[in-house]
Design goal:
disordered C terminus
Length: 78
């Protein structure tokens, strides 16, 4: 189950990364449509979240990041 989730997260991360890279190229070459600025920021946020979740999923698969995941969940607790 986790392997399928990790695969799905990896695919989504790659999709989002490609769109972000295209938009960054547009920004660097003054081709960026400013009306897409909020969309760009949302993609960057999504990429950060998906990347973090993917890292956790991959770490939990092999047990190497179990302590890190536990610490993060403890830090979120009120």
């Amino acid at each position: 189950m986790q392997q399928a989730t990790a695969q799905q997260l990896a695919e989504r991360a790659e999709q989002v990364r490609r769109v972000i890279m295209t938009m960054r190229w547009d920004i660097e070459h003054n081709q960026f449509n400013e009306s897409k600025r909020s969309y760009y920021k949302k993609l960057e946020e999504e990429y950060a979240i998906v990347s973090r979740e993917l890292e956790q999923a991959r770490g939990l698969d092999d047990g190497t990041n179990q302590n890190i995941a536990d610490q993060e969940s403890d830090a979120r607790a009120p």
